[in-house]
Write a structure and sequence with these properties.
This protein has 24 helices and 23 strands.
Length: 675
């Protein structure tokens, strides 16, 4: 197996943070990490002179490369060391096109610059930000050999999915002066001679790519000293003050996107404060659900806020008044008031929003790449394109007609104003009676919608390891609750007096200048949550802590690694075994988990995939931490510097207070056991 890192930066560019390159750091990295091949891949730049210097100084095979901004994504293009001059001239064209932040080139430009991309190793950011866009990947797919990811979790996930690209994990590191910690992200490939052709061949076979040399994707390196973790469930044990929390903190600093549940962080200290914080936490976590549930009301409010029934009534009143006065004075009208345009009404201007949305929907179906096979199975794309063209033509016609009406209306308005100035006759006030009637219908329908939303009902249920989360909708009980929902210190007493009349309540909310209109939708119906235990009762203080722990663990799915420090410090053994162990084991099937414990209920029963044991020694008064590790079935645990300890004795000392104590406990349990 060969160890490679094909994403290394040596030049500070406009797309990168500033750093000072150090060849000594690069040499130290290659030597300490025992790398067989590296690639120099700076952002949109290739420095040929620097590359040649690096190539001569390193013992590993060095490939020339470049990281290019291509259509909303980053792509590594790696060439042959034997064709350095040609690669240098082509990358110079990239640098000419990308001169400022935000610049990028198209796939077509990329191919025009490099020619046949089959002659290069092409690796886009895949499960890593900024991830390559789907349409861009589709254009490049015949040239791509692998996809770069940024964590062990994503590496394993993509390796297991036959539809995904072969994953590669690289450091994406800057070889800078005084680099304190060397990178630990590299990839192993089952490759012989390290040529570009050999690399491409290996990367196209997932069976030849792994996170570790001897353990495949079971283990991955976490520290620059070579210490590994399992990609599943790791249990970290050790005596007090031997470096367990220190190790977790090291992992937290070394890896991005970590969920770290620290010791005692979920234990309640003040009942009232804890209950309030608990409810706020539950509501924050599910705020997206509330927004989704009330999305329809939000759209309705966007329309209703524009409706002013009082203004409509005034316009209708003015229309009737001027109409009557005009009829009374009909025999006294002069030449100006008898002109056809004197009482002309303006053309109504239609709304093309629905048609615009339809055109956009058809366009999305046509351009969708991810679900293209399903779409083509049911819909003729050629027919969809014809539909899109026809809809666009209709839309253009409607928009042109609307523009013509605006121009004519402006002329009519101007002429009417001129005629009005020249006569004493009454001009009939213009009013759109249809629009007035529709506004009343809208308000009536709005009231029905709000009334329906206020009816007490459970709108959401979710279970979590025996707990049940319920969301209930109901009316606000008073102005204080509305103020709490608004997140402001504004007064809502006047508004609440009109709460039962949805439209007038909205008008009152609009009078409150400190309240953003985008937040109105939250103030019509209250969404409250409650957490029930397995017996259907609301959770107690201790149960709240249990739920929060389970919730925190479940939320770790959104992270790349979960660290949890001594869960037994806060919870009883039955809860740990029946609930915590189960959810930890489940989540470890999709991501790496590290649990620190002294408790045999967790340590011995959770079903660890890998064990780690910490020790501390004083060298000249300075603490030195050492980690021993191995599989649960290994009789010996080994440190990265070659030290060995007995697994059986270590486990009993850490989890059972020693062999003698374990035997006494065992005999005591046996003595009271029914025969």
């Amino acid at each position: 197996m060969k160890k490679i890192d094909l994403h290394i930066h040596t030049v500070s560019t406009i797309s990168d943070r500033f750093f000072t390159f150090s060849l000594d750091t690069f040499k130290r990295y290659v030597t300490d990490a025992k790398l067989d091949a590296v690639a120099v891949t700076n952002h949109d730049v290739f420095d040929g002179a620097q590359f040649r210097q690096i190539q001569q100084a390193l013992t590993a095979t060095v490939f020339p490369g470049i990281e290019i901004n291509v259509e909303k994504g980053h792509v590594l293009v790696i060439g042959k060391p034997s064709e350095l001059d040609d690669f240098e001239s082509k990358t110079a064209l990239v640098s000419q096109r990308i001169t400022k932040i935000g610049d990028s080139i198209s796939v077509e430009e990329l191919i025009k610059i490099f020619g046949n991309l089959q002659n290069y190793l092409v690796i886009p950011h895949y499960d890593k930000g900024p991830a390559i866009a789907g349409e861009t990947l589709e254009k490049l797919k015949t040239y791509v050999s692998a996809g770069e990811v940024d964590s062990a979790k994503k590496f394993v996930r993509n390796a297991k999915d036959a539809a995904k690209l072969t994953p590669v994990l690289f450091s994406d590191s800057r070889m800078m002066v005084d680099l304190a910690t060397l990178p630990s992200r590299q990839t192993y490939i089952d490759c012989g001679t390290l040529t570009l052709e050999a690399l491409k061949s290996c990367l196209q076979d997932k069976a030849k790519v792994a996170l570790s040399e001897r353990d495949g994707n079971k283990l991955w390196q976490v520290f620059d000293n070579g210490q590994k973790l399992s990609t599943g469930l790791n249990v970290l044990i050790g005596a007090r003050s031997t470096g367990k929390t220190h190790t977790l903190n090291q992992i937290n600093e070394a890896i991005n996107n970590i969920k770290y549940i620290e010791q005692f962080s979920l234990v309640q200290h003040n009942e009232a404060v804890n209950e309030r914080e608990f409810k706020n936490s539950v509501e924050r976590r599910r705020s997206a659900f509330v927004d989704q549930y009330l999305a329809g009301l939000k759209q309705v409010l966007d329309e209703i806020t524009k409706v002013d029934l009082a203004a409509n009534d005034r316009e209708v009143g003015a229309y009737l008044d001027t109409l009557l006065r005009s009829a009374v004075e009909a025999d006294r009208r002069d030449a100006f008031s008898k002109a056809t345009l004197f009482d002309e009404v303006e053309f109504p201007i239609g709304n093309a929003t629905t048609l615009q949305s339809l055109v956009e929907s058809v366009r999305q179906v046509i351009e969708n790449i991810e679900y293209r096979p399903i779409i083509e199975k049911h819909v003729d794309l050629a027919a969809l394109r014809r539909l899109a063209r026809e809809l666009i033509e209709v839309l253009r016609t409607k928009l042109l007609d609307a523009e013509k009406r605006r121009v004519v209306n402006a002329l009519v308005k101007e002429i009417k104003q001129g005629l009005k100035i020249r006569t004493a006759a009454v001009q009939v006030q213009d009013v759109d009676l249809y629009a007035v009637a529709m506004d009343k219908k809208r308000v009536a329908r709005f009231s029905e919608i709000v009334g329906s939303l206020k009816k007490d009902a459970i709108i959401f249920r979710e279970t979590l390891q025996g707990f049940r989360i319920e969301a209930r909708k109901h009316s606000y009980a008073g102005a204080i609750e509305i103020r709490a929902a608004s997140g402001t210190k504004l007064a809502f007493s006047d508004a609440f007096h009109k709460y039962d009349d949805a439209y007038n309540y909205l008008r009152e909310l609009k009078q409150n200048e400190g309240l953003p209109s985008a937040d109105y939708y939250k103030l019509f119906v209250k969404i409250s949550y409650r957490i029930l235990n397995k017996d259907g009762h609301e959770v107690s203080g201790g149960e709240r802590s249990e739920f929060r722990l389970l919730q925190e663990i479940a939320d770790a799915q959104n992270f790349d690694l979960l660290l949890i420090d001594e869960p037994e410090s806060s919870f009883d053994n039955l809860f740990l075994k029946s609930e915590v162990n189960q959810i930890l084991k489940s989540i470890s099937e999709t991501m790496p988990v590290v649990v620190v414990t002294h408790n045999n209920t967790v340590g011995a029963s959770v079903g660890a995939d890998y064990l780690l044991y910490t020790t501390k020694e004083l060298e000249n008064g300075v603490p030195r931490y050492r980690i021993f590790s191995g599989y649960p079935t290994d009789k010996k645990m080994v440190s990265v510097d070659g030290k060995i300890i007995n697994s059986h004795e270590t486990l009993l000392n850490s989890l059972e207070a020693g062999v003698d104590t374990y035997e006494r406990w065992r005999q005591g349990y046996e003595a009271i056991k029914d025969q």
